[in-house]
Each structure stands twice: as structure tokens, then as C-alpha cells.
Amino acid sequence: MTIDHESVPRPGGPLSARRLLGTELLERPAAGPRARPAPQVGRHRRPLRSRVALPAGLLGCDVLALAAAAALTTPGPPPLAAALLGLLLPLNLAGGLYRSRLTVSALDDLPALAGRAAVSTAFAVTLAACLGRFVPGPAALFRFAGLLTAFTLLACLGRAAAYALLRRARRRRPSPTLVLGAGQLGQRIAAVLLEHREYGLRPVGYLDSQPVLLAPDAPLRLLGGHDALESQIRRKRIHHVIATEGAADDAATAAALRTAARLGCRVWVVPQLREYAALGRRGTDQLWGFPCLPLERPAVRRPGWVAKRALDVAAAGFGLLLLSPVLAACALAVRCDTGPGVLFRQQRTGLDGQAFTLLKFRTLRPSNEHESATRWNISQDHRMGAVGRLLRRTSLDELPQLWNVVRGDMSLVGPRPERPYFVMRFGQAYPEYQDRHRVPAGLTGLSQVNGLRGDTSIEDRARFDNRYIESWSLWQDAKILLRTAVLMLHPDGS
């Protein structure tokens, strides 16, 4: 279930971590700022009203439209209209009809509104018929068709009014915006924003790490490189960041965008290759004809993360209660094998590069703290007794980490935590390794269930861990937990 032993490959093939830590890694230079643990970043968020005004207004439009349509068509008893509302709003929310966008249009929303209203109506009619509250007939079905038509038209009219008010508010109070990339595309995007204030974005300057010569009469100036992003966001109270010039493919720019997202900014990417917009990605927007792709919010800021934390606490707490006899038996066996101090405490690196104390059952007693912090692998240590080998082989020594989950130091699913010493070493070799700390560490993770445990590649493991973070969902967590349970039936001691 858990992995504490890793290796780093050399370009021509795999290289054990023990050899690399002793020779090759010590000779490699640091990879710049990303080689250090990610700092604790204070968030600088947009004002609450600017984030909730549009979604709340659109939600209110739909509620009023449905109430007015029900009053006009009288399709059935009030509970039926309530059931229709209860089905329609979640469908609209899942379809992104309440999200904030750069380009807003009631006609763009019309097909999605009509389709989801039809699905909700069908479910409501079926539910009412099953409960005996409604007897289908030609007249009743005709009234439901009228309800559907009336709601769609009224909702579109309400959204048209809401969008008109939104454009007016955006012109009056545009949000400060940074443009990453001062090249030709970046300057054209800035010109569009200055000319078309209905987008609600007011560019305040460029950030570009490459030397750029701007015209003397240019309306915006270069504020620095990517390393000035955080200071400029705080100084100018930036709410939006727009990246240009192939930013999605540039590692330094990608790191800057992640920093902006952690600070609470809304991040957009304008790709040079327009065909990116044809991929049909959900949420694709446009700025005066330029395709504009929104960067997904960090996983820890999505609504589902609250459910993940609740699941962690409930499952870990229940696991501690259910496995209390097993925990007691393991503690007694460790006490008899290694003497007093059945719990082994070790510093590990978690969310945002912050250290926490990880708990395990002791499988051997290290000679000193330095050995505990810097020795790579103890699986073949002659000091480990039969009890320790059994605990490690069955992963029972990891059970106390359920308490780390309850405390909030870890999650059930996430990148496996490593000791700060090795985090520094691996971060020097592979800058992507530091990106694993965007979410809390986990008992198990995507890399582990794909066989990347034991003496395997650090580079591959970091790639899988970052893939997990960038595509996170509750269902993905459930799949990883199920696959972990299957793997635990065939323990291999790693």
C-alpha cells in the first residue's frame, strides 16, 4: 500500500537510487528555484462579489424562469415543479452553465438550457407517474411541452438581461490583468483588452523572461520576468493572468501559472496554435476571435476537495476503530521485538513543501537520527527481526498513518511523502518532482498502483503523481483505493 524506497533513472536506463545518491546526483547542479521545496503561498483572491455575482444571478434567473413557466402552464401539483427544479439546477451546474466566462451570450446557452430542461422534465414526469401523482395523457403532455418551451424562453431572456448588466459592470470596473509574454501575440491580446472593455480585463503590464523591445509609445510596459509574478500580483492586486507565446509548453511559464493559480488568480492560456480550440475542451472561451483556454483551478480549491477530506476523515477514523485489535497486536509484537517505543516518527514533506511527522510501527531501531533521515533502504538490514520483516512485507507497519490522515497531514490517496533530504536530492535531478507537493501526501497513489514502487524510476513516479493531481476527481480516488486493495492481496514487501 505504501512505498518508501525509490530510484532515479539515468538517461540510458534505470539507475538505483543508492548509486545515484552516492555519485551522479551529487555532481548535478540544482535546477533553479523549482529545485527547492514549494513555498507556502498566501492566497490573493478576487473579491467575493466578483466571483459569485454571475453564478448567483444566473441561478436566480433559472429559478424565476421555472417558477413563472410553471405558473403559466400549470402542468401539475407544486411538488412536481419542485422535483423539476431539483433535477434541473444540478444538471445546469454540471454542464458549466453557471460558470464565469469572458464571452457571454444567451443564444450560446440556449441549446444547453433546452436539452437539460427536456431531460429534467422527462425525469420529473416519470417520477410523478411512478408515485401515482400524475396520470399521463395528451393534455398533460401538451402542458409539459408548454412548460419546457416557456422555461427555455424565459431563462434565455433572463440571461440576456443578466449578461447586459455584466458587460456594463465590467466596463465600469475591469479587473487588473497581467499578460505573460510580451511578444507579438501578447501585444495583440493586450490591445484587444484595452479596446474591448466588455471583457472586464484591464491589462497593467507584461511579464517576460526574454529580452523584449517595446515601442516607446506602447501603452503597457515590461514589469519583469516570471520570477516577478508573485510580487506583481500582490502589488497590483491582479485578478487575472493571461499567458501567450506557447506558454503551455514552457516549463518556466507553467510553473508561473501554477503559482498564479495558487494565489487565487484566474488563469487563461492563449495558444499560438489555433487548432487547440478545436479539441472541444470544456470551457474553451475566446477573446475577440483568439482562442482562450482557462486553466483548471488547483485540485485543493475545487468543490469536490471538501468531499475528499470528509471521506478521508470518515474512512480513516472508521479504519482505526475497525482495526484497533490489529493495531494492538502489532504494537505488542513490536514491543516484544524491539523494546520500548513501538511508534517510529519521521519527518516527511507534504503539501506546499511543509514538513510533518509521519507515524509507523518500528521495524528496527536506527543507530542515530542522521541514519534515519538519510539512509535510503533498510529492507535488507540484518538488524530487522522477524516481526519487522512481517510488518513491512504486509504493510502493517503503515497502519498508524491513518492517524496522520485524521490529523490532516495526509490523505488516503496522493503522492507518497518522502524525507526532506531526498526531496532536495530528487528535486535537483528532476524539477517536476517538486510539483508533487501541490496536494497532501497520501497512503497510496496513482504511481503505486501502476507498479512504481520499490526500486523504480523517480522520473516516472513524479510523472504519474503529477498526472493524478492534474486530472484529480473523486472517482479517480475510488479507483486507486480499489486497485490498492487488490494489490494488498499479493504483498511483495515494497
TrEMBL record:
<keyword id="KW-0472">Membrane</keyword>
<feature type="transmembrane region" description="Helical">
    <location>
        <begin position="52"/>
        <end position="74"/>
    </location>
</feature>
<protein>
    <submittedName>
        <fullName>Exopolysaccharide biosynthesis polyprenyl glycosylphosphotransferase</fullName>
    </submittedName>
</protein>
<keyword id="KW-0808">Transferase</keyword>
<feature type="compositionally biased region" description="Low complexity">
    <location>
        <begin position="28"/>
        <end position="39"/>
    </location>
</feature>
<feature type="domain" description="Bacterial sugar transferase">
    <location>
        <begin position="308"/>
        <end position="489"/>
    </location>
</feature>
<keyword id="KW-1133">Transmembrane helix</keyword>
<dbReference type="InterPro" id="IPR003362">
    <property type="entry name" value="Bact_transf"/>
</dbReference>
<feature type="transmembrane region" description="Helical">
    <location>
        <begin position="311"/>
        <end position="334"/>
    </location>
</feature>
<feature type="transmembrane region" description="Helical">
    <location>
        <begin position="110"/>
        <end position="135"/>
    </location>
</feature>
<comment type="similarity">
    <text>Belongs to the bacterial sugar transferase family.</text>
</comment>
<feature type="region of interest" description="Disordered">
    <location>
        <begin position="26"/>
        <end position="46"/>
    </location>
</feature>
<feature type="transmembrane region" description="Helical">
    <location>
        <begin position="80"/>
        <end position="98"/>
    </location>
</feature>
<keyword id="KW-0812">Transmembrane</keyword>
<dbReference type="Pfam" id="PF02397">
    <property type="entry name" value="Bac_transf"/>
</dbReference>
<feature type="transmembrane region" description="Helical">
    <location>
        <begin position="141"/>
        <end position="166"/>
    </location>
</feature>
<dbReference type="InterPro" id="IPR017475">
    <property type="entry name" value="EPS_sugar_tfrase"/>
</dbReference>
<dbReference type="Pfam" id="PF13727">
    <property type="entry name" value="CoA_binding_3"/>
</dbReference>
